Amino acid sequence: MKNYKQLITYHPGEILERVYLRPEGITLKKLSQDINMPFQHLQEVCQGTMDIGADLAYRLAFYLGTTPRFWLKKQQDYDLNYWASELKKIRKEIKYRGSKHYEKMTNSD
Fold it and tell me: How far apart are alpha carbons 28 and 43 in whole angstroms?
């Protein structure tokens, strides 16, 4: 298994599929039935086109023996990594006010 720093670059749906479903031989259809979630929703999560929200996080936690916070943290880490990579584009779109709080925020990472 990859270390934590490497995993945060993956969408949590990919982590779900690679680390939890495939090794156990659990199909998306079975997961869908077992946790009472639409197949299409789970498929989109695993494809990285839909986020993991609180509802799915709780269902996965109960089903897989993890915690909801685990899944929501993976989603948050992915989102922050993604937007950090988009920072140059974002800076061009937003007028900078010159806040010292912004300087602290960008220098802390």
Answer: 7
Distance CA 2, CA 4 (A): 7
pTM of the full structure: 0.75
Q: Domain 4-107 falls in which CATH fold?
A: 434 Repressor (Amino-terminal Domain) (1.10.260)
* Tens digits of pLDDT across the chain (109 residues): 445 555 457 999 999 999 999 999 999 999 999 999 999 999 999 999 999 999 999 999 999 999 999 999 999 999 998 888 778 777 778 777 776 665 665 565 5
**Rounded-to-integer distance, Cα 5 and Cα 20, Å:** 18
Distance CA 100, CA 85 (A): 22
Burial class of 6 by CB neighbour count within 10 A (0 to 12, 13 to 18, 19+): exposed
